[in-house]
Amino acid sequence: MSVSPRQETQLCPGRVCESRRASIMLVKSVCLLQVLSIVNVYSDSAYIARVRLTGSKAPCAGLLQVMVIGRWERVCDSQWDLQDAAVVCQELGCGVPYSVPPASAFGAAMIDAVVITDVQCRGDEGSLWQCPHSTRIQNFCYDGRFAAVNCTV
Fold this sequence. Notes:
- The protein is α+β, with helices and mostly antiparallel strands.
- The chain has a domain at about 45-150: SRCR-like domain (Mac-2 Binding Protein).
- About 25% of the residues lie in helices and about 20% in strands.
- It has 4 helices and 6 strands; from the N terminus they run H-H-H-E-E-E-H-E-E-E.
- Strands 1, 2, 3, 4, 5 and 6 form a 6-stranded mixed beta sheet that branches.
- A hairpin with a 6-residue loop joins strand 1 and strand 2.
- Helix 2 (about 15-25) crosses helix 3.
- It is globular and about 30 Å long.
- It is found in: Membrane.
- It is a single-pass membrane protein.
- Keywords: Disulfide bond, Glycoprotein, Membrane, Repeat, Signal, Transmembrane, Transmembrane helix.
């Protein structure tokens, strides 16, 4: 993946990349790749532990965001389905999902960074981070294709 210096600044603030550059990647690369490496290394630790829904007045509906090293980031909707949404709804105490609407239903910004894709939950995991997922981001993930959910509560 190739990202220009301008994109690097937008995708990853200096404090995150600078503090992790030497410890995560010795190769000089873009901040996004470093953050993705951190996601892989720390996916079961305190560095990544939270999810939230945004963009809706309803507390149990909206665009999915995940906390990655102090920043809220988006999840790509590639392969996103009701089983994945079930884990998020349960994790948030929001019952069960009744739909996985397009991100446009919640006014998704086209420039938001995406940190994970291809989430493949069975539906019984206790956390989204326990579900198989990829940090290989395809181009279409940057085109407003973000995971969203409507839960019953």
